[in-house]
Amino acid sequence: MPATAAVRAAGTVDPLLGYTVPAPTISSLQDGDTSFSGNVNIAGAPAGTSFIVFVVDSSGTPIAQANNVDGSGNFSGTLTNGASFKAGETYHFTAVVQRQADGDPNPFYKYSSYTSVVPQSVTPPEENPLADYTVPTPVFSPLKVGDTTLNGTIDLSQAPANTTFTVTVTLPDGTTTTVTPDATGHFTVALNQPVQAGQTFTGITTATNDGFTKTGQQGSITETEAENPLANYTVAPPTVNDVFVSDTTVTGRIDTTGAPANTTFVVTLTLPDGTKDRRS
Question: Which of 184, 201, 113, 219 is nearest to 149 (CA)?
Answer without folding.
Answer: 201
